[in-house]
Hints:
By secondary structure, this protein is mainly α. It has one domain (about 5-195). Helix content is about 85%, strand content about 0%. The protein has 10 helices and no strands. The protein has helices at about 5-15, 15-35, 45-75, 80-105, 105-115, 120-135, 140-145, 145-155, 155-170, 175-200. α3 (about 45-75) runs antiparallel to α4 (about 80-105). Bound molecules: protoporphyrin IX containing FE (HEM).
Amino acid sequence: MTISQTLNTTIRKIPAWPIYWIVAAWTGWMFYLAATGKGGGPEPINWLEREYGALALKLLIAGLLITPLRTWTGINLIKFRRAIGVTTFFLILAHFLVWAVLDVQTFERVWMEVVKRKYVTVGMVAFVLMVPLAITSNNWSIRKMGPLVWRKLHKLTYPIVVLAGIHYLWLVKGFQIEPIIYMAVIVGLLAVRFTWHSKKTA
Ligand code: HEM
């Protein structure tokens, strides 16, 4: 038995549902730290926004890594993809609500910021594109839509992760290496996907 076969045997026994609870618990704990002043320093609301956004971006990339990981190593984490996708959506919803309700606070200002600030605009587009993916992340939708249409819709993941990477690149002030590394990883993973796709359809 190869290492990946051994690992897959173990992975098959690990349920996906704890991912929902772990991310929900982390989200609640971070909110508690910010709300009580135990975390986040002088600007707990901005800290919370950024912590939620940072984990959401990591989870988006983790979701994108699952298929290449299986192709390169044989390790199959596909069963966790839905839990990762759905928790990412709710984390971005929390990210947006902390910003809109606690930071910006009025609808007019939210609208103004979304229209005027480029990094907020692309973040918002990415978030809106995630809504149909979150709504259809269930077996009922796959049956209703049919696997082909469903898979086509879920290819929206690609522009979403690119917009999220641009969102991070555009929001930082001055030269910072971290958003560039994230964008390089995103572009690299998508390049691999499209190369495979073009080979498959060639
Ligand atoms: C796919 C959707 C999104 C992802 C993955 C995402 C991710 C991120 C990341 C990684 C950061 C920086 C974290 C850091 O500094 O360590 C961030 C910051 C931020 N995001 Fe998002 N975001 C998304 C959507 C949105 C939306 C919809 C809004 C508001 C409409 C938004 C507003 C902000 C703001 C205001 C900041 C903080 C900027 C600052 O440091 O002052 N984001 N986001």
